[in-house]
Amino acid sequence: MEVAIVKAFTHENTGGNGAGVVLLNEQISDDRKQEIAGKVGLSETAFIFKQDENDYNVSFFTPVCEVDLCGHATIAAFYYLGKTGEIKGCNETRTVYQNTKAGRLKIEVTFKDHDVEYVLMQQSRPQIYGELKDKKQIASSLNIDERFIGLADCDIGPTIVSTGLKDIMVPVRSRNVLNNLEPDFRMIEDISYENDVVGYHVFTIENGKVYARNFAPKVGINEECATGTSNGALGSLLISKGFSNQIEVIQGEAMNQKSLIYVKVDRHDGLMDVYVGGKANIEDNIKL
User: Fold this and answer.
1) Residue tagged active-site, from 44, 189, 224, 253
2) Please, what is the end-to-end C-alpha distance for the chain in angstroms?
3) Residue-wise pLDDT tens digits, 29-41
């Protein structure tokens, strides 16, 4: 069994979040998938079985269990399909679908010449639940003064948003503030439970670029260098405030694992369709 190790959401060939990718010629048991994922040892491994030219059955396993969906493993999987020629294109965007336990989801694979350039995946419709009143508590959990909460030139406060997973979007005044945060993970975990969210997605905008950090100690991840659904939620919030419908988010800079996440939001009939994705690198191929 060959497993590709692919990093999704890379930036200038660095950073990114690693996933295992297995292309199946025939279906195998869930127990066998679980065994392979455990040996790979990354947060998720994606198992792909081609149904037809436009449909792929995809399942996702952590080292200990199956999960319904994984964003970075999706990007890794379809980047791998494009790079290996399983999905072909030339200066075009191919639309395919993955059939998962979370449903049938649209994937866009964009090619430059014959090489895959980047991959976007559709997210759930965004829900913006409103701003939190207690900025002081949020600031305290990040060990900053309350006056550093918020953007310099836009009225946005800490806001709960979801494109599948609920997070608190926390704007801070500058990139310097963002990169020097000293989060109190126990306090963030308590606030996450109080508000029924996964964690914080802290962001700022500097010289037209969006920078972010993600803290989710409630689910055992103190900080992650690249997150798909959180940045989809962020894009939804920003477009609701009048920003562009396409943004690039740099995440992981403070971890020295700078990653780049593309977010595209299409608006029609008062609704928003959110797509998140990016580039990837095939790091290795291993045999199990």
Assistant:
1) 44
2) 5
3) 999 999 999 999 9
